[in-house]
Amino acid sequence: MSDFDDSLFPQEPEIEYACDCPEQREGYYGTGSTTPPKDHVGVIALVLALIIGFSSLISILGLMNIRILEEPEPEELRSPVSFYVSGDLLSAELEPREPAATEPPRLEGVNTKIQITASPQSVENVTQAPGAISWQEVYEKVLPSVVSITCQGGRSISTGTGVIMDAGGYIITNAHVVEDAAQIQVLLTDGRELQARCVGFDALSDLAVLRVSASGLIPAEFGDSDALRVGDEVVAIGDPLGPQLRGTMTDGIISGINRDIQSGNRTMTLLQTTAALNSGNSGGPLVNCYGQVVGINTMKIGDYAGEGGVQDLGFAIPITSVQTVLEQLASQGYVAGRPDLGLTGQAISTFYQFYYNMPAGVLITAVDPDSDAAAKGIRRGDILTCLEGVEISSLDHVEQIVYASSVGDVLEAEIYRDGIRFRLTILVGEEKH
Question: From the candidates 148, 158, 282, 371, which is the catalytic residue?
């Protein structure tokens, strides 16, 4: 076989390059360089970061009320400011402020001192009732007989007001002010602070009598509350909101007589007054225009009606109707004829009923050893579940039934102890504190 003759095929023409670069250059094709372009992402990110940082700096400086890149305005470019008011042109030239002087200039011939001129005697505020004294005299007469009361019991502190009953140291106040007190402090108007003990209290009339050992006490004068009529002027003196406002006097009128007001499980017959009463006034005096104490302030309607915004509705215990109660509390520490079972207890909450698997009722915490309940074997830790056929779930139920009974009555009771229910009768005794 003969040699291959490539002359028989057409030859490829030579390519002429438009550039003067060699035909075979490393990294080049006929159309250009094959080297990849450089990456500029980092540079772009850096520029964006600088822009953001500069913008943030400008914002911060703006918040700090610092201006940059701003030249001060030349004096010759400042122009007057004009104001148009109701069509009239008013011009005002802005003048540079001068620094304030360290001392203002004194005006010649001007007297800068305050001169106090003697005032005439204030007018006595006297009601038109025959023989009445002025309200200023009423305040001066009654205030020395009013005391501030602070009670401490456990972790709580309560305050109230009291009225000196006699020179022997007996003081009248409300039962609800002192009934849970472990310590009782009395502050007199002459600044003396005295320890007091509770001689006795009566929850039914909401009255209590305290006693302090002190001399020089000024007892209040008491008036006949049965002589009051609707429209009579009265004042209340006491410590609204506590001793920091002690000795406050508020005025008003008798706005109601013989108001039967429900308080808990008892009904109280009270005087209604428009004199402002607030927390801390409890136990203080309601005084007539002769400077006589005719009532002991006990409550305002918001305390019991759930209406804290109600105004001009206060109530006081008429002094004539409770004279015997106060005398018995002072002499023997209790009110004769008040019914009592001789039991002290506390209601069992729903939580404890489920958690300890206890029935609803009142847990007995103390038993009077001289009571019929103690003689029947009732003891501390028992649960009173039923009384006179009424299922007991609160102390209110017990008080309502007891207050409706009389000394010597026999009540049917049910006691729960260690999973067993016992039925027995309890003789109602006389309450003695």
Answer: 282
91 is a catalytic site residue? no
Is 176 assigned a catalytic role?
Answer: yes
CB neighbour list of residue 348: distance below 8 Å, 6 or more residues apart? 358, 359, 360, 361, 362, 363, 383
Predicted confidence (pLDDT) at residue 9 exceeds the cutoff of 50: no
pTM metric for this prediction? 0.67
Q: What is the mean pLDDT of residues 17-46?
A: 56
Give which of 359, 258, 369, 370 is closest to 317, Cα–Cα.
Answer: 258
> If you classify domain 225-320 with CATH, what class do you get?
mainly beta
Amino acid at 47: V
**What would the pLDDT profile of 258-275 be if each residue is shown by its tens digit?**
999 887 667 889 999 999
Q: Which helix (H) or strand (E) holds 312?
A: none
Assigned CATH for 339-430: 2.30.42.10
CA angle 398, 399, 400 (to 5 degrees): 95
Asked whether the beta carbons of 325 and 207 are under 8 A apart, the reply is yes
Q: Where along the chain do its domains lie?
A: 225-320, 339-430
